[in-house]
Amino acid sequence: MDFTFSPQHTALRRMIREVCEEELRPRAEKVDRTGQQDREFLRFLGELGFFGIPFPQEYGGVGAGETGYCILMEELDRVCPSTATIIGAHIGIAAMSLSLDGSPDLKKRYLPDIATGKKIAAFGLTEPSAGSDAAGIQLRATLEGDSYILDGQKMWITNGPIADVVMVLAVTDATLGARGGATCFVVETQWEGFSHGKPEKKMGLHGSPTSLLNFDEVRVPKENILGDVGLGFVTFMKTLDIGRVSLGAATLGGAQAALDQALKWVKHRTQFGRPIANMQSIQFMLADMAADIEALRSLVYRTAWLVDNHKPFIKEAGICKLIGSEIASRCIDKALQIHGALGLSREFHLERGWRDARIGEIFEGTNEIQRIVIASELLQEVGVRIRP
Amino acid sequence: MNILVLLHPIRDPGSFIVNRRAQKVFINRENYVLNPADRNALEAALRLAEARRTVSTPGNGHGAHVIALTLATPAQAALAEDTLRQALSCGAERAVLVQDDLPLADAAAVTTVVQRVVEHLGGIDLVLCGAEVLDRDLGQLGPRLAAALDWPFVAEAHQVTLRDNTLNVVVAADRAFRGYEAALPAVVAIAPHSNKPRYARGRDLFSVYTQANVVETLTLSELDLPALPTTLEWVGEAFPPERELGHKLDGDVDEMAKQVAGILANY
């Protein structure tokens, strides 16, 4: 088994890390404080390939696959989880659904602009009364001649306020429910009838704009169906399955950042006449963080390898997201403890990481849903089917 | 127009600690970076080439090319290849590696090799190098090379622009900027931090790093260099002595000047 990254992935990580350190890190505090994203800066990142890392070069991407995408998410989240979330939702679920199930024609029309960051994409699944119960969505798509009329709402949509394109799951046949009765559509946000709500005020990820989406009789041409009529749920579930891997990579970045910061602090901070690095209580906390991070790192990149090599990965992906989110929260919390009062200070960046990490256990499938997915895969291996 | 840029991979300054008390260098992690001033030199070259391509002048038929050059011993071959691929990813058109048993810290030897490469490649109009190399005393490479090639040399350039075949160079000196003109071909040493080096685009990195054989390799015999002149002999290594307390001088300028002269006379 060769556990080394390829030369091209190593070179890619080096470039991404440098951009994150030199360009993103100085902006992270302001992005969190103001909640504003600099579109010029996002465009600069797009030119370097940050908005299309996994997609084939023929569609405007970098061609770095799931491994390259995990590298991107790890490096971004290490520095600015808000920006990581904007790009993560854009690539990992919105553009990914198009890449997985879009027809060549639909991909040719939308993917190049999305992969270069010229257009920002969002993933519209969740609704006010459909979160974990994704099958309970109610946004309707009614066929009228050559188009569908979309009517309803989506809620808690990352990139909602800034998206140019939204991949929406709508009910096309209410009698069949979500299985067989839902279809994905690519909707352009400048179309008549689309509007978005105010950005939600959240505990963390202030720089990642999230909002309600209103579809008020939006006319969507049949050419914009993503995948097949009635199979929208399958497309979206496939997308969420793969999205978990890169989310695990993002949480890895957050955990690593916490450990790096803790290591800097324990060298520098002296109490009782010596650096606190000399105290076993601190050493044990650092060791526990490192152990968690090593395990997560191996898991994430092995799962990315499974994806890139077209092997089954659903169970591993669920585990990536499940333990990644919990490890990140644990590590960041320990780092905060190690910094004492400084960890609580808003003049210092740790408390931002602590607030930003909490969402990990909730979005893109709560950790409860992840446990169901993992158990379902496990039991299927021994012949028991428990799909909810 | 062909611009040759010399690139040196060096040990990352942040990756090791010099501990005078232990008389040791502690290497915390194995990490190498491109010499910072060389990145500025590469950026300067790329900008000159881009500017040249947008101007159509007689004799400009062949466009403008940046050629990256690195010297390496066999042990550093992979590192040198990586350095050159970085340059290609940023937009250099060619990458040349001279790989042999080379005394890389010896400015006279390095000068001879680079001079031979310039002659071997032919058609080089400009050589750019970083004004300082962090782990070696190669700031002297620029003037040595220019003397060997009998070309003009400009040191510590902050800005280089080209009009037809004349270089306009802005150099920071004392508390002012000085402008120089030099006719091509020329050698220019680029000051560190004098520009913002570009990042390679993801797709270019991926293309360059997945292609085989993007680097042209040369050996000393292919350059017709059976033996290299050396001016250095490695005797040993030690830390420089502790800095001693100096003399504090009082009085007006004339009195102080007399005191300095006295100290120097007794040195």
Describe the protein in words:
The complex is a heterodimer of chains A (388) and B (267). With 388 residues, chain A is of the alpha+beta class. The model of chain A has no long low-confidence stretch (mean pLDDT 96). In chain A, helix 3 packs across helix 7 and helix 8 runs antiparallel to helix 9. Chain A has a 4-stranded mixed sheet. Chain A has a 4-stranded antiparallel sheet with strand order 2-3-7-6, with helices on one face. A two-stranded antiparallel sheet of chain A has the order 9-10. Chain A has 12 helices and 10 strands. With 267 residues, chain B is an alpha/beta fold. In chain B, 30% of the residues lie in helices and 27% in strands. In chain B, strand 6, helix 2 and strand 7 form a beta-alpha-beta unit. In chain B, helix 2 packs across helix 5 and helix 3 crosses helix 4. Chains A and B meet through helix 1 of A and helix 2 and helix 5 of B.
Element layout with pairings:
The complex is a heterodimer of chains A (388) and B (267).
Chain A: H1 7-34, H2 39-48, H3 65-79, H4 81-101, H5 104-115, E1 121-124, E2 140-144, E3 147-158, E4 165-171, H6 178-181, E5 182-188, E6 194-196, E7 210-221, E8 225-226, H7 232-268, E9 270-271, E10 274-275, H8 280-308, H9 314-339, H10 341-344, H11 350-357, H12 367-381
Parallel strand pairs in A: 1-4
Antiparallel strand pairs in A: 2-3, 3-7, 4-5, 5-8, 6-7, 9-10
Helix pairs in contact in A: 1-3, 3-4, 3-7, 3-8, 4-5, 4-7, 7-8, 7-9, 8-9, 9-11, 9-12
Chain B: E1 2-6, E2 9-11, E3 16-19, E4 24-27, E5 32-34, H1 36-54, E6 65-72, H2 77-90, E7 94-99, H3 107-121, E8 126-130, H4 141-149, E9 153-163, E10 166-173, E11 176-183, E12 186-190, H5 202-210, E13 216-218, H6 253-265
Parallel strand pairs in B: 1-6, 1-8, 6-7, 7-13, 8-12, 9-12
Antiparallel strand pairs in B: 2-5, 3-4, 9-10, 10-11
Helix pairs in contact in B: 2-5, 3-4
